[in-house]
Amino acid sequence: MRKLMTVLVGLLMVVPTVAAARPDADGARDRPLTVMSYNIHHGAGTDGVLDLERIAVLIEQSGAEVVGLQEVDRHWSERSNWVDQPAWLANRLGMHYAYAANLDLPPLNPGEPRRQYGTAVLSKYPIQDFKNTLLPRYPAGEQRGLGVATIIVKGTELRFANTHLTHNNNAERLEQAQKVVQVLGKSHPATLLVGDLNATADAPEIKTMTSVYADTWPEVGVGPGYTIEADNPTKRIDYLLHSRHLRPTEASVPVSNASDHLPVLASFVLS
């Protein structure tokens, strides 16, 4: 009997060790991640109503863990009630955030916050590092940028790049795309490049980026994936591009009137 008890105790000691190792092994090769890109039009919907809560609800219901936002105001003007929009959304959603001010103007009155307009990253995971690089701008153009966040997702480093390319000059937009590829480079950790790229997939500027990063929508999206105009979309100009370290599993374009764009949502497995 004593010998049998010794064998049973030995088994009880071994089994938990094996079971504990298995989730670690699985986790090393299977880290699911849901991502969104959304041009929020400073919170103004197709109905002309300014309502950040609609944006927050959409993000919340989507299950997105990391979000790239474009056209985000920070104390900008009366059009957005002078609100610090990235801070408001992050607080409402319980997420971390980083902000890239591509337009940065002095306040109207001394002592008030600077008036800023640009892009933002929201993340359920801590943002370890963030840098914004200004992109090429022609004399009549609006300054655009590439915001790059370093995020540790379940033990793995993710480089999350968010941009908004110019809307009215093909040559300028091509130079911006070339700068994006130059900044991000071809040797890198797992990378997601998201944003409002203001061009369709056959444009040279988009091909410049998809020659390095895969376009998620043709891989796993269903239908045309049109994102603008939100109330009657006819073009796909909002993108989720990814490096080989991410495997997309599904993608969708949620319907909403919270902005003049529709968001793009996708799930990935991060290796």
Automatic annotation (TrEMBL):
- Tell me where in this chain the Endonuclease/exonuclease/phosphatase domain is found: 36-261
Citing just one GO molecular function, the answer is: endonuclease activity
Domain of life, source organism: Bacteria
Any GO CC annotation of this UniProt entry: membrane
Any idea what this protein is called? Endonuclease/exonuclease/phosphatase family protein
One of the protein's GO biological processes: GPI anchor biosynthetic process
Q: Which InterPro entries match?
A: Endo/exonu/phosph_ase_sf (IPR036691), Endo/exonuclease/phosphatase (IPR005135), GPI-anchor_lipid_remodeler (IPR051916)
The species this protein belongs to is: Kribbella sp. HUAS MG21
